[in-house]
Amino acid sequence: MDRYRIGFVLSTALGNLTRYQNLRKFADRDADVEAVWAPVSHYFTAGEVDPFRHWPGPLRARATVWKQASPVLGRLSELDAVVIHLFEVDVMTALRALAVDRPLRIVSGDDAPALDPDRYPMHPRDRAKPRWRRALRLQIDLWRARHADLLIPFSPWAGRILVEGAGVPASRVHPVHVGLDLDLWRPSDRPPRAPGERIKLLFVGGEFERKGGPHLLEAYRRAAADVAELHVVSPSAPAEVPPHVHVYRDLVANDPRLAALYRDCDVLVHPTTSDLSSWVVLEAMASGCPVIVTPVGGIVDLVEPDRTGLFVPVGDVETLANAVRALVDDAPRRRAMGAAARARVERHFDASINVPRILGLVKAAIDERRASNASDRATV
After folding, report:
1. Rounded distance between C-alpha atoms, residue 145 and residue 167, angstroms
2. 305 contact partners, CB below 8 Å, separation of at least 6
3. Whole-angstrom Cα distance, residue 218 to residue 234?
4. Which residue segment(s) compose the domain that 281 sits in?
5. Same domain, yes or no, for 18 and 167?
6. Are 172 and 216 in a shared domain?
7. Are the C-beta atoms of residues 89 and 71 closer than 8 Å to each other?
8. How does pLDDT run across 355-369, given as a tens digit for each residue?
9. For residue range 157-176, what is the model confidence (pLDDT) as tens digits?
């Protein structure tokens, strides 16, 4: 039987780098798949030649995307399917599919059409756009979702929007999170803190303000400054922070130092104001660390409230402070929640299990298309 020829055009910006690395590691182990990879970072590194460096900003950005996506885009006619997590490429391939039925278009990401802007966890830069631009983007998102051959969103939250709100047939929507590489993320025994030793709280977020960093600092001042220390991993953290707050500005995705910090801390606090999903939450849970988070976007499908973590409303500093103090003061509860968090990741968010599940969905769609084409040829 022919191998499955699958192209992957995936954004690697911010947390998406982790998704790309995990997907590629385990997909490349499948001998039945001939994979073509096009990671799109949206920029050229210091050692690369930027052929568009003199172009105007918006044009330069688009040209960079097409250049980095070209390993897959140049072979579309040879591929059985292309898995996409990139707006521009998804629109282009959707238009192309109106005339050419190969390859299958498979969309995999953490987002969904923003049908209800007041409740959707939209990025502040998108919320600041004129209403007409957001309305136009919504119509484009609905059109490309409805014309995809298969959608594999990260979360049931996004899947419900696609089916119940956007009207995509449920048979074409299969939520599966790529998951974590559990070889990299392991829990520690976390021995009880000695009497008088400070509990260690952790915050991880590239965009300090959007991820709720200011809310956390205020909650820390109110509820935990006397008994806990706070470790902040963020390049955009403020220069001035309270005593017992430690800032790390140079840690990157899958950094062994970050993994060690997760294992050493007692609670992750992630009061994000807008998120579609969260690798940070999964990494903490995989490290045996309970979490305090806001129930935005697909985060609602990551955490079991009161079992693996606590939910607090967005922007509610008082409730956040109370949640922090509750876990700071209750070591047995922290340990029980951390163990349950690790077990949940092992059951539902293990990349060694989930990536083959994703590939299985893609293969099934290809098999169906091949059978349909063979039937068409037989009737000619």
Report:
1. 9
2. 295, 311
3. 17
4. 199-348
5. yes
6. no
7. no
8. 999 999 999 999 999
9. 999 999 999 999 999 999 99
